[in-house]
Amino acid sequence: MVRKNVNILVAILLSILLVLAGCSSKTKDNASTKEKGDTTNKPDTFIYGIDGDPGNAVNVISTGDRYGLMEIKTIYSPLYMYNGKDNVKYFLAESMTPSEDFLTYTAKLRKDVKWHDGQPFTADDVVFTYEQMLKEENGGWARSQLIFNNQPVKVEKVDDYTVKFTLPTVSMGAMEALGNIFIMPKHVYEGEANIANSPKNATPVGTGPYKLKEYKAGESVTFEKNDDYFLGAPKIAKVVYRIIMDPNTATLALQKGEINALAIQPSDTSKFKGNDNVAIKPYDEGRIGYLAFNLSSKAVQSKDVRTAIAFGLNRDEINTASYVSTDYSKPAYSFLPKKATYFTDNVEKHKFDTKKAKDLLAKAGASNLKLKLAFTANNPIQQKQAAVIQQNLKAAGVSVELVGMDATALSKKLQSVQTDFDMYLSGYIMGIDPDTFNSLFVTNGEANYMHYSNPKVDELFNQGRVEKDDAKRKAIYEEIQKLIIDDAAFYPLTENKRILSIDSRIKGIEEAALVPVYTFEDMSKLSY
Amino acid sequence: MRLFLLKYILKRILQAIPLLFIISIICFTLIQLAPYDAVDAMTTPNMTKKTIDLIKARYGLDQPAYMQYFYWIKGILSGEWGYSIVTHESITNDLSVRIPNTILLVLPAYILALLLSILLGLIAGANKGKVADKIIDGLSSFGIAIPSFWMAMILVFIFGYLLDIFPILGMHTVGNEESFSDLLSHMVLPCMVLTLSFMPELVRYVRSSTIGQLSEDYVMVQQAYGAASSWILFKHVLRNVLLPIITIVGMSLPMLVTGAVVTETVFGWPGIGTYFVKAIQGFDYPVVMAIMLLSSSLVIIGNLVSDLLYCIVDPRIKGMGE
Question: pTM for the full model?
Fold first, then answer.
């Protein structure tokens, strides 16, 4: 009898195998018929691989992570996107005009816009959104940029399609600060006490090119096109953000065609060389990767020591080691990225010179210097940067101990005053107007992790914010860029690109425009 | 006798309750001891102190630790596990989607691994020192030594990319969510990886247990009666080998939650594993606590279940209590 059981067991196993084999061949048939279909009619789905889960509570107020914001960009629209002084892309607004004295900005709204549920979009929605963003307890991501000199901007409805923004004081960065905020429907969220945890976030109602169809935790976010989109119906019927945590699997899936787009590491680009199905599109995010000194630590408080170290570093070698090729990263010399207003690279470049570094160190009386360099341990780029820095400085007679840390732990350390390390590697994506960078460098600035303080820089940032004359403003920010580099507490390494690898059948990438964070400025323009 | 059994079960369950309680305290304390402030996951550097205080108050983080513990336990007992502080999604919702996904992967793989292991282990044990044993034992050693993510990548590369037989991503092909055969074909590769990674230890366990049983007197008696060796193996030895397996199966209960963390990450399977890893990276402490509590409770429950099963299956245990 037991014998019989074993036979049954074997039979079960065999049948399981058969079933599995059966369905595998079936899916293969499916896949091939699908491919056959592709050549005759166009595919209707665009699948974008992402390595994070945006969650099911995405809302325009409290969501601030990259993938959450990508989802928001797909569903909602802002008044306009500020991409540069002469490059403002209008969405819900038709225009945004400052007054002569730069104290009020007036937005004229589009009249033809409908929410996904068919309700008309009006000035009430705009005023409601900015009010919610300003409410302290909502924890809105853009709240601090709407506060000028400790006072909030005042947002008023003039008529159904006109909104007036009144600033408490002149701020030349206001045009940028007031933009890029996505508008949410008042008729849906009105009276909601806790927006971040509201169940309404699971069924978002937006004005954007796509509507949320389905969110599957840890798996995917699916969107379907909004035929009433005010800038024209999207050309691809369905967009899917597919969550893939493992970069190796994601790259294989792209090679195989299971997904259509993915952001990849520079070292993975070689896998797509000669692959006609995938196009590599590196694009600028305005990100500056840098080495900075922790000025709480005594060893690096002397400017001479820091200058010596700056001369001891081989910027080009560090960048080639980490980003493979200059296609994906350009050397950075200023704290501003190239597309920022008033960018200049007319600053001290600290050209690599080991001998000079040694001489300067000897003069500063800092021989046998031992420093600790902190970086994010599981970041492949920073690992390589750190290794080259260690080698460079060894040649200059400085021994560097590498302190690899967990990302959360490092950012926690950076936010406090500590002497656990003397230098650290990091990066930022800020904005276009140089005033958006001030929190990194002014004394006690919220993001001033170096604990850097130069009264002259503080003063110039304050002047720059209110200076209405363009030429004078330019001079101020060029001066700031020089001063910060001269102090040598901040050593910009690279302005690196994000590398989007995308199905080469996809057209309209130029019109859709590749932008920081969101990837596409207007997804409705993509087509097969 | 039956009354005794009930009493025994009741006693064991009552014993498990304080253990679960202690585990909840340990989970909570460990998280409190972590060198982070939970509020960091929700704030950005450009928020003012006042905003941060308001956020702290909203999530009860301004309360003393024992009050936070009290709120947490109260929530868990009433089925309200709280919200992720990173995505703001309800943890109860998230878990109710992800746990079935993980079970769908782990359970078939484990059952398959168990059946295959028993078969292979018996063969190896019965042929101790012969070629079959050497192959099976050798492969098991090999299997134990291979990290599962590596095996997963190799299988993905061969079957998913080179041969292109199976899909490598997630649970469904986009637009084909209802199809059962599509789901099955997505399951093949991750299940294979899990089966192969569960098997080696089970095989070795069954093998050594078989060798032990074969040297028992009752086997010699059967042999003296002239019984066929396969009959002895499957009729008598198998039963005795299966007994300790119950313990192993019971102790494997937590695997239903955390058994596939690595495999899920490689295959983008939307289960508990990817959720847990993401939560740890983002310091999403309510999620980390919930999963820690869940999997450690399952250890206790697993032990309890295997003890109870054992006492039902093996009459000798019952006798020992009296």
Answer: 0.80
The first and second tokens of residue B220, run together, are: 């010699």
| Residue among A231, A256, A230, A227 at smallest CA distance from A244 | A256
Report d(CA B75, CA B52) in Å as an integer.
24
Taking contacts as CB-CB distances below 8 angstroms, the residues of chain A near B44 are: 64, 141
Residue with tokens 């193996």: B233
Residues sharing a CB contact under 8 Å with residue B156, sequence separation 6 or more, in sequence order: A248, A249, A252, B168, B189, B266, B267
Helix axes of A2-40 and B91-126: crossing angle, nearest 10 degrees: 130
Q: Locate B50 and state its tokens.
A: 């006042």
The alpha carbon of A505 is separated from its chain's Cα centroid by a whole number of angstroms, namely: 26
pLDDT score for B2: 66
Chain A nearest-CA distance from B153, in A, is: 8
Cβ distance of B165 and A65 shorter than 8 Å: no
B160 and A439 within 8 Å at the Cβ level: the answer is no
Chain A residue with CA closest to B181: the answer is: A23
* Joined tokens for residue B165: 């037989």
Which tokens sit at A352?
């690599």
Q: Which of residues 46-105 of A touch B (CB under 8 A)?
A: 47, 52-57, 62, 64-65, 68
User: Is residue A429 less than 8 Å (CB to CB) from chain B?
Assistant: no
ipTM of the complex: 0.74
Q: What is the mean pLDDT of each run of 10 residues along chain A (528 residues)?
A: 49 51 42 40 85 84 85 94 88 92 92 92 93 84 83 92 92 88 92 82 92 86 92 92 88 90 90 87 91 91 90 92 88 92 90 90 85 90 93 92 84 84 91 88 86 91 87 92 92 92 91 89 90
| Residue A501 buriedness (CB in 10 A; 0-12 / 13-18 / 19+) | buried
Distance between CA atoms of A363 and A440, rounded to whole angstroms? Answer: 30
HSE-CB at A333 with a 13 A cutoff on CA atoms is 14
∠ CA A341-A343-A347, rounded to 5°: 160
Does any CB of chain B come closer than 8 Å to the CB of residue A526?
no
To test the contact with chain A by mutation, choose from B47, B89, B102 the residue with the greatest count of A C-beta atoms within 10 A, namely B89
State the count of interchain CB pairs (< 8 A) between A and B.
187
Which of A45, A54, A244 has its CB closest to that of B268? Answer: A244
Q: What was the pLDDT predicted at A27? A: 41
Q: Tell the residue number behind the tokens 């993509």, with chain if given.
A: A526
Q: What residues of A are in contact with residue B49 (Cβ under 8 Å)? A: none
Helices vs. strands in chain A: H and E counts, helices first:
15, 21
Tokens describing residue A119: 């309700």
Q: CA–CA separation, A86 vs A78, rounded Å? A: 18
